[in-house]
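Continuing the batch. This is chain 6 of the set; chains 1 through 5 are on the previous pages. Same settings as before, nothing changed between runs. Recording input and output for traceability.
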Amino acid sequence: MQTNTTASSLVGTATIFIQNLPNIPSMLKEGETIAKLNEAEICRSCSVLCTAEYCVETIQQLEDKMKEKITKSLVDKISFESERNIFKVIIAESIQILIQDLENACEPALTAMTKLSWQTIETVGDQSLYVTTIINHLKSIVPIIRNHLGSSRKYFIQFCTTFVDSFIKKFINHLYRCKLINTIGAEQLLLDTHSLKTVLLDLPSINLTVSRKPPQNFTKIVLKNMTRAEMILKVVLTPYDSPRQFVKNYLQLMNNDGDISSFQKVLEMKGIRKPEQAHLIERLKREHAAIIASHQQQIQQQ
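Output for chain 6:
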């Protein structure tokens, strides 16, 4: 009876936590598509996360203590796993709310990037305004989250890791929407991408006087995904003199990625017309198939 009462109490507490999480969809005002949490709401989300983390740890301690005290034949019947999982869900939802809020803040800048006239850029300058806007959002929001998750470093890192993985994919998707990019425009985008990569690599320590080296997994995700963005732009910079050479350069830069959809998006970025695209896509299929066949042959010979 005592165990059931304890479990019910834990579930009731979890319900209260869920009710205290900011509801982003309900915060949207009429005519708006993006909601933004204020600092108090960010603080509340972090507080819910930290408390849920404490509950997970305490429930585990309670379970362990009960197993110590109870008759050995009943030990296997003691489990608060379902209660722990409830609080783990709350932690995950709290992190997702923080990520969604930061992504929402950056979304207008990404949209602005796609609306720039990249075919008329004449000189490469400093980083573009949309990059500065994104960086300013990161500098204003991430330190608040870091401060409020001071006792939950692992979940702050999880927030940063999940955010960069999601954000960079969005960045690449918006990059694909930039059309008719001339050489100077591609060089400017490459500079912008490098600026973003530099900031994202230091995201966990952003605005700190003394930086703390982020986990290897975090760095690996940023480098892998942002390198792909850079390679896309280097393909755009590749001269289109010979279709065969262009396809070979594409496969080399994109690590032999034979995905047709990605290739077609790059062709549209370069402003290559549909009839020519069809020819290039067929050549990509042949070149990629040849690479796969050669690779398989090498494996068989080993």
